[in-house]
Each structure stands twice: as C-alpha cells, then as structure tokens.
Amino acid sequence: MSGDMTPILERSPLLVFEYSGTARSGKGSIVNYIAERYTGVATEETGADYRVVTHTLLNEGLLTPDMTPDVLAQRIGQYSIAELSDIVAARPQIVEEHGLDSFYASEVGDIQLFFYFQWLQSVKRSKRALRGE
Questions:
Q1: Nearest to 58 by CA among 113, 112, 97, 108
Q2: Do residue 74 and residue 106 come from a single domain?
Q3: What does pTM read for this prediction?
Q4: Coil, helix or strand for 43?
Q5: How far apart are CA 62 and CA 105, in angstroms?
Q6: Is residue 1 part of a domain?
Q7: What's the CA gap between 116 and 132, in Å, rounded?
Q8: Residue 67 structural domain
C-alpha cells in the first residue's frame, strides 16, 4: 500500500471501506493487511458469513442445491438471528474441521444466501449505531 493513511484515520472516528468482488479475489487479504498495519481497524467478512451458513446448512441437509428461490427463502426464514449468528460465530471451528476450501465448493457458491439476508445488513448497521460506532 502506498501512502500514509494516518491523516485520514485521525480525521474520522469511523471509516468504512467496502470491498466487493468475486470469491477468492483477494478482498480479505487487503482488509487484513490494513487491519494489521493500522491500529483500531475492525473487519467484517460478510461474504464469509454467508458461505459458512450455506456450508453448514448444506452439510446438515437443511438446504439442497436444487431448492427453488421460494423454498430457500422459506427455509432461511425459519432461523432466528441468534441461530444464524451461532453458525457464523463457529466459523473458526468449521474451517478447522472442514477446511477453508469447503466454503468455496460450487454448491456453496451456487446458493447465494446473501439475497435472502438483506435484512441482516440493517441489523448490523443498527447494532453499530447503538454502540456509537
């Protein structure tokens, strides 16, 4: 990374950088580099969150790649935020057990859960606002 971000970081108590791109394009590496280089930087990998939920529900037989969008939406709607959060929180253990590559299997990527979790972004923003972030 060229340049010094310190003046930018000093001017604002909260900066939000959003990276988007295809799976395994290096987004996480860039964000982790920034987080390691500068103090007070927090990261959020929503794509990884969606993938761990999809992977887990597929492995438990609760989702199948051939589900129609309506059935998929209905199935996901049966889970509370707490239940989905528990799956996301278990990501390190799931990676250790199944390997990171399992999150990038075609059946995981083919079921694009993020279309069904738009409300989750609103919840995250609300939580951050309540915490004053």
A1: 108
A2: yes
A3: 0.62
A4: coil
A5: 17
A6: no
A7: 27
A8: 46-130
Rounded to 5 degrees, φ, ψ at 49 are -65, -45
Q: Token pair of 58, please?
A: 């597929």
What is the number of residues in the chain? 133
Place of tokens 């979790």: 117
Runs of H (alpha helix) within the chain: 6-11, 27-37, 46-59, 69-76, 81-89, 91-98, 106-110, 118-130
Tokens 């790649």 locate to 65
pLDDT, tens only, 13-60: 666 666 667 777 787 788 778 878 877 777 777 778 888 888 898 888
Does one domain contain both 31 and 64?
no
Contact partners, residue 34, CB within 8 Å, separation at least 6: 1, 5, 17, 41
